[in-house]
Amino acid sequence: MEQKTGKSTSLPGECDVCLESCNVDIVNGNLKLILGLIWSLIVRYQIGRSKFPPRKLMLAWLQAVLPECKVSNLTTDWNSGVLLSALVDYCRPGLFPHWRKLELP
């Protein structure tokens, strides 16, 4: 079921990102598009102002907030779902309290 929002979405500030063509996909829950948009916002407004590469900053932050998980690779470490579950529980404590019982590959 497609839902049209009828609105154009733009981000405030120096960078106006028009999401007109993506509204339907976002409303319908296109996970890849939503996560890509979130990453773009993080890079643009948080990480983009740093002198360090975004991937290294993200990796350092994940290692700091998830010390039990031993994050070392932003691609393959996520395959099992354990890190995502741990991150969800970190961001919203109690949402996934049993992530430690998940099996590591």
TrEMBL record:
Ranges where the Calponin-homology (CH) domain occurs: 52-105
Gene3D superfamilies: Calponin-like domain
InterPro entries associated with the record: CH_dom (IPR001715), CH_dom_sf (IPR036872), Filamin (IPR044801)
GO molecular function: actin filament binding
Keywords annotated in UniProt: Repeat
GO BP term, pick one: actin cytoskeleton organization
PROSITE patterns reported in the protein's UniProt record: CH
SUPFAM superfamilies: Calponin-homology domain, CH-domain
Protein name: Calponin-homology (CH) domain-containing protein
Source species of the chain: Acanthoscelides obtectus
